[in-house]
């Protein structure tokens, strides 16, 4: 519980990724680059919006797009032989829109780029680099093989770890390849290279999502929507949202620490959960509408800023709690005591009314009132980062003309997340009460002293975690 998970662990960006692969084939008189561009559902949707007309691979608009895009990709790639640049030309292109999640499609573009070198003799230095989509989150891979040429030295693999962007390793998002350049030492001679597979026959697999996420995104893509299926999908979305919130990074630790440290109530735990649902749903709707309306919006650039805001807000909540506890401790020490006899002085902690509100006097840790604005802020932090899978569901619903169904599924998913967060808070509140009762039997005075330190410790924990999340998010903001 003292080790909150990273934000990326709970919010995979697989549906936002733009991935590239460059397969270099060194031949006796030329260099061929098998360049593959793989866009996940959201960037593919935005790209298709920029293609006029019916964006099918063999339509006039599709052929024009793949030709222009391959020319642009070639212009941002570089081949140098012994330090001299060689121009890359486009030999052939292929475009496909494999099926993705939530009724959306992905985008796969293959460009055969050729750089003529003339007949090579002796040893040479060859370098290749690509600046394509380096500002986007994704997998960037380079391989190199010789075709009747020998690679004396090579800093890249001869085989693709992702099978040319069709089979991503499970750690795609935690440690994706980021190869932007390759340097080779080559000489004539050697066996021939096997041809690359037909790009039109491959279908990319889901990127960085678990089975629960796949199930959730599959609801909106069903072609025949009946009332019974819609009701079942809503109920399952609640369940899948609850399962999704069990993953690290959803603020369960911070929310539970706050409620336990401040001795919150069941009603307050429910309030935080409902705030999480409202914030998450509004965030998904806003991001989904922005993505569907403009190709300029890049979610992977937005998420670090949201992470920075949530971290700073958490740190501010913790700082406010620490200042409140300090003022409370100071007021307790300054409050006059009530004597009961000439030789005894007893601290008197009591609660009473002041007009329309009540408050409690006492040392920190004895049940101080939890402020509503702090509860709302904790819930806001928990739902500030919209789940990418919920965004995909909403976009799929918009594409299929079922906006109402997408909104309902997103709300149900948020309710499931809120149920998990609320349950975690309730469980720890109950555990805190049971622990108080049992430990008081072994030494009331000593346990009271320890209990007074719990709010201070939780406030410090919130400050530390909030600062760490803000710092991590700041390092991920694109320069």
The low-confidence runs, each spanning 5 or more residues with pLDDT under 50, are 1-12, 199-209, 337-367
Count of DSSP strands: 14
Shape: elongated
Strand numbers in spatial order across the main sheet: 5-6-2-1-8
Strand content: 15-25%
Your description of this structure?
- Helix content is 47%, strand content 18%.
- The chain folds into 2 domains: 18-189 and 201-206, no CATH class; 212-332 and 360-476.
- The strands form 4 sheets. Strands 5-6-2-1-8 form a 5-stranded mixed beta sheet. A 5-stranded antiparallel beta sheet has the order 4-3-7-10-9.
- It has helices at residues 7-10, 41-49, 60-75, 211-218, 227-244, 252-261, 266-293, 299-334, 372-383, 388-399, 403-440, 444-476; strands spanning 18-26, 30-39, 77-81, 84-86, 89-96, 107-116, 124-130, 140-146, 149-154, 181-188, 338-339, 345-346, 351-354, 357-360.
- The chain is elongated, with a radius of gyration of 29 Å.
- The chain has 12 helices and 14 strands.
- Helix 7 (266-293) packs antiparallel against helix 11.
- By secondary structure, it is an alpha+beta fold.
Question: What are the defining features of this structure?
Answer:
479 residues, alpha+beta, 2 domains, 5-stranded antiparallel beta sheet, 12 helices, 14 strands, 47% helix, 18% strand, elongated, disordered N terminus
Short description:
Helices cover 47% and strands 18% of the residues. With 479 residues, it is of the alpha+beta class. Strands 5-6-2-1-8 form a five-stranded mixed beta sheet. Strands 4-3-7-10-9 form a five-stranded antiparallel beta sheet.
């Amino acid at each position: 519980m003292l080790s909150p998970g990273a934000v990326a662990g709970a919010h995979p960006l697989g549906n936002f990724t733009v991935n590239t692969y460059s397969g270099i084939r060194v031949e006796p008189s030329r260099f061929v680059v098998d360049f593959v561009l793989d866009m996940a559902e959201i960037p593919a949707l935005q790209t298709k919006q920029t293609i006029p007309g019916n964006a099918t691979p063999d339509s006039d608009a599709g052929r024009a797009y793949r030709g222009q895009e391959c020319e642009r990709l070639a212009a941002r790639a570089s081949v140098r032989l012994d330090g001299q640049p060689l121009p890359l030309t486009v030999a052939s292109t292929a475009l496909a829109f494999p099926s993705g999640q939530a009724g959306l499609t992905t985008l796969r573009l293959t460009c055969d780029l050729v750089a003529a070198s003339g007949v090579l003799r002796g040893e040479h230095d060859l370098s290749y680099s690509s600046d394509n989509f380096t500002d986007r989150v994704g997998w960037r891979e380079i391989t190199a093989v010789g075709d009747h040429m020998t690679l004396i030295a090579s800093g890249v693999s001869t085989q693709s770890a992702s099978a040319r962007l069709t089979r991503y390793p499970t750690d795609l998002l935690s440690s994706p390849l980021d190869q932007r350049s390759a340097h080779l030492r080559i000489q004539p001679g050697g066996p021939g290279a096997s041809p690359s597979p037909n790009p039109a026959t491959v279908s990319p697999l889901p990127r960085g999502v678990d089975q629960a996420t796949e199930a959730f995104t599959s609801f909106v893509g069903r072609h025949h929507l009946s009332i019974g299926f819609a009701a079942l999908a809503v109920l399952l979305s609640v369940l899948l949202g609850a399962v999704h919130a069990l993953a690290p990074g959803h603020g369960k630790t911070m929310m539970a620490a706050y409620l336990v440290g401040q001795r919150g109530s069941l009603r307050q735990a429910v309030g935080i959960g409902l705030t999480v649902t409202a914030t998450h749903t509004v965030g998904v709707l806003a991001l989904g509408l922005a993505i569907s309306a403009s190709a300029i919006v890049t979610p992977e650039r937005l998420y670090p800023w949201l992470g920075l805001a949530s971290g700073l807000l958490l740190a501010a909540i913790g700082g406010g709690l620490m200042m409140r506890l300090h003022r409370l401790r100071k007021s307790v020490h300054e409050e006059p005591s009530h004597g009961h006899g000439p030789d005894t002085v007893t601290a008197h902690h009591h609660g009473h009314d002041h007009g329309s509100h009540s408050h409690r006097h006492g040392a920190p840790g004895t049940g101080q009132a939890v402020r509503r604005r702090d509860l709302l802020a904790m819930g806001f932090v928990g739902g500030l980062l919209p789940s990418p899978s919920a965004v995909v569901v909403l976009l799929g619903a918009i594409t299929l003309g079922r906006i109402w169904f997408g909104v309902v599924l997103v709300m149900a998913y948020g309710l499931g997340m809120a149920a998990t967060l609320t349950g975690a808070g309730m469980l720890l509140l109950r555990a805190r009460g049971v622990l108080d009762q049992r430990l008081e039997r072994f030494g009331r005075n000593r346990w009271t002293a320890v209990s007074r330190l719990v709010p201070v410790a939780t406030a410090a924990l919130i400050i530390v975690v909030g600062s760490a999340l803000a710092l991590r998010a700041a390092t991920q903001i694109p320069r």
